[in-house]
Amino acid sequence: MNGLSSDPLDRADRACMSLEGLSLGDAFGERFFSKDAWRWQKELTFPPGPWNYTDDTEMALGLFDCLIRNGRVDQDRLAKIFAERFHRDPWKGYGGTVRSVLRGIHDGVPWRTLAPLAYSGEGSMGNGSAMRVGVLGAWFADDPERLVHEARLSAEVTHSHKDGQAGAIAVAVATSLMWRLKPFDAKEFFSTILATTPAGYTHDGIARAAELPSGYTIASAVIALGNGNYLTCSDTIPFCLWVIGRHGSDFQEAMWTAVSAEGDRDTTCAIIGSIIGCWGGRPNLPESWIRLREPLQFDVDKRP
Question: Which residues contact 242 (CB under 8 A, 6 or more apart)?
């Protein structure tokens, strides 16, 4: 494991790199809901620009905002930031459940009242908790124990179900490991994630992913692990981590694998991008893709 700085400037730089990878993956994957997706995949052709990002990036920007302002997850402020960004631009692909939560928060209903109401009172175990959390994993990569606590707090604002929180923890830990594991070691990657992810459906899926050979066909991996079609953490994160175990730090290969699996492409690509984006910083991300993606809309200075 490599030592990392806890200096706020270094933490912000790390989070920015994860955010770049996340937003690129999100915007790239979103384009593959087009009727031309089959041709782009067959020819490995870049979709034409502009690449607009979705709620995956919007909520990651909100989490980044909170970290810059507070240096930690202040749940009340995070809820307010999420709601304000949603109110300003509600057409970023937000799902129905989170739309109702964020609309309620904006109207003054406490998030602690709203979040547990999802899914008939069970709380959400959706993949939204994981799609945005890479920036937090990068921010707290120097402090693995605190990272788990902060990831749970970040999820709880919208995902009161324990498996929704487990999904956020798994992706945050995975993101931190891309900073700390040099060279990348898939076995240690999976074992560390499994050791820190709470028991439940997502943990079980990650355990299957750890045992699944990297040489499996993508179609077989989807059957075994899911591809985000059901929009849950357990149906999304195991596949994302398997892709990273298969491709390591190769950002573009991982993106093409993710979109070829179909399913919730913008979110699988966002999660994978947030993790791999940390490997070598911006030089590991294709500049041609960055030019195609719409500019990120920060509400705060990127430096604390």
Answer: 209, 212, 214, 221, 225
Contacts of 39 (CB under 8 A, 6+ apart): 45
Q: Which of 254, 260, 253, 221 is nearest to 238 (CA)?
A: 221
Please write the tens of the pLDDT for every residue from 196-232: 999 999 999 999 999 998 889 999 999 999 999 999 9
CA distance 10 to 12: 5
- Residue of 167, 193, 183 whose CA lies nearest to 264: 167
253-275 burial: b if 16+ Cβ within 10 Å, else e: ebbbbbbbbbbbbbbbbbbbbbb
Cβ neighbourhood burial of 223 (10 Å; 0-12, 13-18, 19+):
exposed
Asked if the model's pLDDT at residue 161 lies above 80, the reply is yes
Identify the residue whose tokens are 């079980």: 204
pLDDT in tens, 168-193: 999 999 999 999 988 899 999 999 99
Q: Cα–Cα distance between 51 and 129 in angstroms, integer? A: 23
Q: 95: burial class by Cβ within 10 Å (0-12, 13-18, 19+)?
A: middle
Beta carbons within 8 Å of 187's beta carbon, 6+ residues apart: none
Q: What is the pLDDT of residue 2?
A: 60
- Among the residues of the chain, which ranges form H helices? 8-31, 37-43, 55-70, 75-88, 96-106, 111-114, 118-121, 128-131, 134-139, 144-156, 162-180, 186-196, 201-211, 218-225, 237-247, 251-260, 265-276, 287-292
Rg (CA), the chain: 17
Q: Are 142 and 188 in contact (CB under 8 A)?
A: no
| Residue 126 DSSP SS3 | strand
3-state secondary structure of 157: coil
